[in-house]
Amino acid sequence: MRRKLIPILAFLLIISTLGPLQPVMASSTQDEVVKIAKEYIGVPYKFGGTTPSGFDCSGFIKYVMDKADVKMPRTASEQYNSGEAVKKANLQKGDLVFFETYKPGPSHSGIYVGDGKFIHASSSKGITISSVNDPYYWGPRYLGAKRVIKEEKTEAAVAKVEEQPKRILGEGEFHDVATNHWAFNEIKKLSVQSIISGYGNHKFGPNDKLTRAQIAALLSRAVGLDTSSRVHGFSDVSDEHWGVGAIAAADRAGYFSYLAGDAFNPNEPVTRDEIAVLFAKAFDLTVSESDDLLFSDVDSSNWAHKEISALQSSGIVKGFEDGTYRPSNQVTRAEFSKILYNALY
What we know:
alpha+beta, 2 domains, six-stranded antiparallel beta sheet, 29% helix
């Protein structure tokens, strides 16, 4: 049996107070800031926190910006006095958004990630994503925005923009995933639902490989595992690792029980046979010795043949046109999107 899951992903980003600063010149820094920020989704809130063991709103912003070589002061009020004022209608990725909550002036902040959303450190949910226009809380408390990252207007940058496809994108669509792509509908649905995101500049990277840490994070969020604890049994995952909470949660759930020894190898690309084992565990698929395998390149000698069979019999995977499963192939973002969509819906 597989269970239907409605994943809820929220990305909250809290801004530290900054002193007056000049906008930083960096043509791709906006996307880099958003990419870095999203790596810490699920990290718990900690008053005064400035590290991945726990962040407050301004500590999180300073940490993310520092990693992108954008130097920022520590407090939200100082951050509010930095950069250039931006109208809400003109917000761009990487802009800082500020809110007036428990006291006059900027008392909460976050990083704008596009599509009317910002990532911040929520006192109740940790690092999460919220709507700037949320009518119940954030919308009425919106104070203003500042741009601390200034786009570099070079000939190379202009040329790169001109090279972008001219297709007008709908919600959840990406320039590098054409409407006739075999996983277009699945990627779009998961993107609209904020289950999986792109890289910025409306790029998805459908052929990019997924690492073990990324898979742990995606599966933990999809099935709603509690990622607040950082206790795990792996020797190569530090408390400072961006995905330690999700890795620990997946470890406790037994997803990675197939790994020998105490090494997790978080940056190791995940193979298609591993995906079968992970999905069988995460979605409670029935694994039976009697299931017949229809893939020409998978037989009973494969260590994951039962799980691969379970994915096939449940309709989650169909394999390739030549009748193969290709168990040793590394999983791409498009393949993972297709499999996850089939498991969820």
